[in-house]
Amino acid sequence: MIRNFDSYFYFASGSWKEYLTALIPFFLAGGLMPVLNYLGRAGVTTNAIRTVIMLALFGLFLILLVVGVKVGMPRWSLPYLGFLLAILSTYFFSMIFGTPLYFLFGNLRDQSLLIIDILWGGIFWYGLLSAIVVLMIASRTIPSFQRFRSDWTQLCFILYGGVPFALWLTFDEYVGDEPYMFASFLVLAVGAWFYLRSQGQWTRFGSLFVALTLAISIAVAGKAILIPAQDWPFTIDQGLVVAEVKHTIIMWGWFAAGMVLPVAARFLPRSDRSSHTTVAEG
Q1: Contact 89, 126 (CB under 8 A)
Q2: How far apart (Å, rounded) are the C-alpha atoms in residues 161 and 178?
Q3: Is residue 22's pLDDT more than 90?
Q4: pLDDT per position as a tens digit, 117-129
């Protein structure tokens, strides 16, 4: 019975079932949440209804993540892992990595230094990038992780799964962000579709990288347009627009760097142990 249950989640590569299942994390953060926020402000839905809908979808998200782990993390489940890692990276690992940075560069935080902006801008994502590095190392030494060396774009797809949460976080406390969030979501969804449908590894990598760049570009344009119209309880000037745009571009830089990291994995030699194990299994 367990084997029959697992078989329901072995979707054919590039099939519509694989695509729709992989799309749920993007739909959750990039599609549904902006729509619910807009309906709430318009008075169409109440806070209770929105809460129930969100809890139900997050419950579905967790169930599918657990199922994905159980059946060996097929491609459709990788964005779920990336989404979860992005949450952990933001709310847990940011404190671990941020505390040393605060003590080392706390006096320089308010100075206009690009390197300091880059370091502080990556605090939320250090944990996510560290997880990608750990998986890269595991792919060289542990036979069960060899799939990430055989197809290094799967590591990129894990990182890609964290982008919807990052976009949701970067538009936190913005009013009127729904069109830009939804447009970014559509771009990410199209990128995921091309990834799942493409055969070549470089084509798959290109689809993710281009979609990441376009989605962040939409967010940058949205912030530049929205900031002057916000009613935040502090002075809104051109300097704030520049700071927010720069912060979003730096966020793109960290995700882009993380997505490029797995490319190096294909050029690193396998350890003797993993090579012998692979031959023995063959």
Answers
A1: yes
A2: 20
A3: no
A4: 888 888 899 999 9
Specify the residue for token string 């994502």: 125
Contact between 165 and 90 under an 8 Å Cβ cutoff? The reply is yes
Closest CA to 223 of 276, 160, 172, 268: 172
Write the DSSP symbol of residue 195. H
- pLDDT-based confidence at residue 274 (cuts at 50, 70, 90): very low
In whole angstroms, give the CA distance from residue 68 to residue 78.
8
Asked whether residue 265 is assigned to any structural domain, the reply reads yes
Alpha-carbon distance 43 to 38, whole Å? 9
Q: Residue 174: inside a domain, yes or no?
A: yes
Among residues of the chain, what percentage have pLDDT more than 90? 33
What count of other Cβ atoms lies within 10 Å of the Cβ of residue 236?
A: 13
Instruction: Pinpoint the alpha helices (H) of 76-200.
Output: 78-88, 94-105, 114-121, 126-141, 147-150, 153-160, 163-170, 178-197
Task: Quote the domain boundaries for residue 176.
Answer: 78-281
- Identify the weakest region by mean pLDDT among 53-57, 126-130, 184-188, 208-212: 53-57
Distance CA 112, CA 115 (A): 9
178, pLDDT greater than 50: yes
pLDDT at residue 267 tops 80: no
Confidence bin at 44 (pLDDT 50/70/90): confident
- Residue 210 domain flag: yes
Helices 47-70, 16-26: inter-axial angle, 10-degree rounding: 130
Count of structural domains within the chain: 1
H or E element, residue 208: helix 201-226
